[in-house]
Amino acid sequence: MNIFQKIKNSVYNPDYYKELSDKPSSYSIKYFLLFSLLMSILSVAVFSVTFFPQINTFLSTLGEKILKQYPSELEIVITKGKTSASVPQPYFIQMPKEWRSNEHSKPNDIENMLVIDTKDPFSVETFKGYKTACLLNQTSFTCYDNNNSMKIVQIPADLNLTVNKTDVKSFIGKAEPYLKFVLPILFTLLLIVFFFIYAGYLLYLIFGAFVIWLVSKIRKIEMTYKKSYRLGIHLMTAPIILMPILNLIPGSPLSVPFLFTIILIGMSVINLKQETTSETLPPAEEPTTPATP
Questions:
Q1: DSSP β-bridge partners for residue 140
Q2: Separation CA 67–CA 63 (nearest Å)
Q3: Is 77 in contact with 84 (CB distance < 8 Å)?
Q4: How far apart are CA 214 and CA 162, in angstroms?
Q5: Which residues pair with 142 in a beta bridge?
Q6: DSSP-derived 3-state class of residue 163
């Protein structure tokens, strides 16, 4: 029986669930790991079709956008941890409009990508007043992090560094050949992440098996917790398939509490049947005819 037939039977086939009683636990574990791998491949494929073209476009134009934003007259020099710049200060590098409209980016009032001010010491009021994502002072570099909190990094006292447009262009030229590996690496990482997400349902089943055991008790089906766990490995097939599909439907009922468990209960009800035992009836007695005198 191939994996697709097993998936079909795990979704609905009461007779298949009766046969599972004679199968070893390794049969179910192997099935679920292979099922998790298939679901991972499918999930990454959907993600790739949806987002990889955008990521590829972003990567292919990233170097050009950086060079476009970097001013030709700007040279930043760090000598023994102290920063100076070749431009009048404070110096503002504006945030591109397409970046500014990103709702997931920094606070909504951000207008500048970077402000250079090596003359004045850092202060929170000045940082906020500049309406910038990042601020370079003489001895520190401050940016908003992903939580929109300020993160201040002190420049190491032994750091000596010069950055100008020529240096940036040279760095981009060296980095570009490696950008072609970003998507394959991302695909592999996503595959691993999704596999562990799906395989992680085996931990959920510690609770789910108890629910299946309760269903079996209510329906007067003899079942131990261990058997409930093993059958649950197969019963989870339908809810695992349904949840991503429901997520794609506008107005889907994903907000229903314990929806996964509710579907699991439904699968238990329709697949787990009480085993019927056929009783052997004694042969019917032949009627005796009275003897003729």
A1: 154
A2: 6
A3: yes
A4: 69
A5: 135, 152
A6: strand
Rounded (5°) CA angle 208-210-211: 65
Side chain identity, residue 85: A
Q: What is the pLDDT of residue 103?
A: 46
DSSP state for residue 80 in the 8-state scheme:
T
Q: Cα–Cα distance between 16 and 138 in angstroms, integer?
A: 72
215 membership: H or E segment, kind and range: helix 201-218
| Structure tokens given for 246 | 């429901």
| Positive or negative torsion for Cα 165, 168, 174, 175 | negative
What are 225-268's pLDDT values in tens digits? Answer: 999 999 999 999 999 999 988 877 777 666 678 999 999 999 99
CA gap 175, 52 in Å, rounded? 20
Q: pLDDT band at 104, cuts 50/70/90?
A: very low
- Where are the extended beta strands (E) located within 98-232? 112-116, 132-136, 140-144, 150-154, 161-163
Q: How far apart are CA 251 and CA 259, in angstroms?
A: 14
90 cis-preceded (ω within 30 degrees of 0): yes
